[in-house]
Amino acid sequence: MPEGRIIKALAGFYYVSHEEGIFQCRGRGNFRKRKISPLVGDWVEFESSNVTDGYILDVSERKNELVRPPVANIDQALLVFSAVEPAFAPVLLDRFLVHIEQNHIHPVIVVSKMDLVSDEEKESIEEYMSMYRDIGYEVIPTSTKAAADLPHFHELFKDKVTVFAGQSGVGKSSLLNLINPELNLETNAISTHLGRGKHTTRHVELIPFGEGLVADTPGFSSLDFTDISTEDLSRLFPEMESRLDGCKFRGCTHTSEPKCAVKTAVDDGEIHKGRYDNYVSFLQEIKEQKRRY
Description:
Elements: E1 3-10, E2 13-18, E3 21-27, H1 30-33, E4 43-48, E5 54-59, E6 76-82, H2 90-102, E7 106-112, H3 119-135, E8 138-141, H4 150-156, E9 161-166, H5 172-179, E10 206-209, E11 212-215, H6 230-233, H7 238-241, H8 261-267, H9 273-292
Parallel strand pairs: 3-5, 6-7, 6-9, 7-8, 9-11
Antiparallel strand pairs: 1-2, 1-4, 2-3, 4-5, 10-11
Helix pairs in contact: 2-9
């Protein structure tokens, strides 16, 4: 039975990419009974007598999936955050990083509009970029003349499925349009009243870029912490996760417990105080959600 990857889902049809071409397929009738809903990015078994009349027979197990955009089996996420217009937002970036770590997706931080920053702003942004690099994250600064960065992105996407996420109005659509001008994604100006951009899309599609695939839809699943426990949160901060064995108590929340390796690292400047403060804020949010439910 041939196997391929769903690269587009639209109006009840799934478009499956195979070495012999792209096949338009429907899902089997019993998928609904089995509560299986194929997603873009799924590896599937299918049968087809021609390119427009196929059926998906089975969906392979996923390594991860997102709700928005609805994509499965993602290798990496490009988190696009601007240096200015809108201002760099480390709290929001840390929120994205927690969710991406939870979904076992490799994050790459892209800091856009670096050519628009003042000298004073540049120093602050570079401190943040250095901090994230020290944690182990890949950080790529880009300018509004992003075409100069394309060769690096070609290499970055090789043999990977990539999604874009990040602040609104930071240039995700512009970057995607640059990668594939045929997309012609709508890139509305930032709403100064709301402080965020606008973007509307009807479906998600994986588009070839270089030797990889890129989801053509900026976005990410809900950014609340309903699926993350207080015990798991610190494991989603790599600089904390590597120190958990040094804490005296199992299940240490790194807030009020004595002999906590994480708090010691914060005091010694080995863990950035801003990252720790964001962790504490997220922890409180999770506790409040538990109380509500």
